[in-house]
Write a structure and sequence with these properties.
Length: about 375
């Protein structure tokens, strides 16, 4: 039931005026099945068109404005398409094949219906450039500066790299993450995000370490050790890691997500973990454990309200949670009926797009 409304300014969304004491409600609009898991997505601004990266190495285009969307695709990488960013009429993809690829999406001619089983086009798409980006290592994350001039990438070589978006020229390498975990096991650099003012890059690794970099100079300007995101066992297996990092819209806070150390996605009663820090001081302002039996794989700040959306990926949760950042608690949870690996909100915050285990979903939000 909708509560009585009050109005305040929320620092986490840049001081914008917001309604408080409200709970979002969802209306499912579209849900469609795909032949593979979808690992990442990007929404074309001002539309209901999404591009999603598949575990089969293909990139899928889905128009949720269609009554019965017909996904189309093209072969992009040898295996997992792990990250995507959109820059105008270009799409940049990264994969486990260590390739960073620029695509002209205006020139791509997509053929075939995934649902009908016809073959997607294997030729005719315009590849602008392909870069072997991280020394033969899996590229796991991409981030685009809001001025669209700089691209950041992170990979299993434990190095963050900055690229000129237009030319593809390498700008600098950012070295600071340990190649091994505290127990001497090989680590992974999972995720990255650039602040809204395009001045800072945050990178998160498997051992729960976050580094904030000044983009212009390449200097480390902040460091957080969120150790509860990581654990290991006596058999040499590592668990956890920071799966998603997001700057708040005002750039002062960092939200981190993953799984509570000591739990794994296969243990009953395991807990997802979301933490928020003031990155300049290292002060923790949120430590939220969510009983979902899985990882919180993706998080996003709502553009107009003091909410953080959190989706469960690996594990059995199959849910999307809404966290009230004023109350520091979950105020709503919705069953996605699939593991969710990535989510996007549109600019007005009234549509939520999800991709995951062989599904793509669009929900309408109201409050």
């Amino acid at each position: 039931m909708r509560k009585s409304l009050s109005v305040s300014r929320n620092p986490l969304i840049g001081g914008a005026i917001e309604k408080t004491d409200v709970v979002p409600h969802i209306k499912p609009l579209r849900e469609l099945g795909l032949p593979t898991d979808l690992l990442c997505l990007r929404l074309v601004p001002g539309t209901a068109i999404v591009y999603a990266g598949g575990a089969d190495g293909k990139i899928y285009r889905i128009n949720f404005d269609e009554t019965k969307p017909v996904p189309t695709s093209w072969s992009a990488h040898v295996s997992y398409v792990s990250a995507l960013v959109l820059v105008g009429k270009q799409l940049i993809s990264a994969g486990s094949d260590h390739q960073l690829i620029w695509w002209d999406i205006e020139e791509i001619k997509l053929h075939g219906s995934v649902e009908r089983g016809t073959s997607p086009m294997s030729g005719g798409q315009k590849k602008i450039r392909s870069i072997d980006g991280h020394g033969k290592k899996w590229i796991r994350g991409l981030a685009l500066s809001h001025n669209e001039k700089m691209l950041a990438s992170v990979g299993d070589d434990m190095i963050a790299r900055l690229w000129d978006v237009q030319s593809g020229k390498a700008i600098r390498e950012l070295v600071g993450h340990d190649k091994n975990t505290p127990f001497g096991l090989v680590s992974k650099l999972y995720c990255c995000h650039i602040s809204a003012d395009s001045k800072h890059l945050a990178t998160g690794d498997q051992a729960g370490r976050v580094i904030v970099w000044e983009i212009e100079s390449g200097k480390q300007v902040g460091k957080i050790h969120a150790s509860h995101f990581y654990t290991h066992d006596t058999n040499g297996h590592t668990y956890g890691g920071i799966r998603c990092v997001q700057f708040s819209p005002d750039g002062k806070h960092l939200a981190l997500s993953g799984n509570l150390a000591g739990d794994t996605s296969t243990i009953t009663n395991s807990k997802g973990l979301v933490q928020i820090y003031e990155w300049q001081t290292g002060k923790q302002i949120l430590d939220l454990k969510i009983k979902v039996n899985g990882f919180i794989e993706s998080i996003r700040f709502h553009p107009k309200n003091s909410w953080l959306f959190a989706a469960t990926g690996a594990g059995e949760g199959n849910k999307v949670f809404v966290i009230d950042l004023k109350k520091n608690e979950v105020i709503a949870e919705y069953q996605a009926r699939t593991q969710v690996f990535d989510l996007n909100l549109n600019a007005t915050g009234d549509n939520l797009y999800l991709v995951g285990r062989k599904k793509a979903i669009c929900w309408q939000l109201a409050w």
